[in-house]
Amino acid sequence: MTLARDHYATLGVAPNATPELIKAAYRKKATQYHPDKNPSPDAAARFREVQEAYEVVSNPERRKAYDDYRQRSLIDDPLAVAREISAKYIQEIMN
């Protein structure tokens, strides 16, 4: 899985958003960027990004895989993850 962009940011929701909130955000963004309603030259590309983001985070299995990948990639909070790793390492050394 490649992580070109943050699907949650694309939809404008938090990573812990409910399926209902994700669906509402998708509908709002899809309407905003739909090529038939938005004359902007990049509207079609943005619409595809929104569709892709929704396809991933609306499917429970794909969302879990995406969230796991985000965690492994340290994009949520790299400093907190680094602190947690170093604390575990020090704890192992001390024991």
Outline the structure in words.
- The protein has helices at residues 7-11, 19-33, 43-57, 60-72, 78-94.
- The chain has 95 residues and is an all-alpha fold.
- The chain has a single domain (7-94), classed as Orthogonal Bundle (Helix Hairpins), CATH 1.10.287.110.
- The longest helix is centred in the C-terminal third of the chain and has 17 residues, at 78-94.
- The radius of gyration is 17 Å and the shape is elongated.
- The N and C termini lie far apart (37 Å).
The rough form would be described as elongated
**Strand share of the residues?**
under 5%
Give average pLDDT, whole number: 88
Corresponding CATH superfamily: DnaJ domain
Element-level helix/strand string: HHHHH
Distance from N terminus to C terminus (CA atoms, Å) equals 37 Å
Task: Summarize the model shown.
It is built from five helices and no strands.
Considering the chains and any ligands shown, give keywords for the structure.
single chain, 95 residues, mainly alpha, Helix Hairpins, 5 helices, 68% helix, elongated
Helices and strands in order:
Blueprint: H1 7-11, H2 19-33, H3 43-57, H4 60-72, H5 78-94
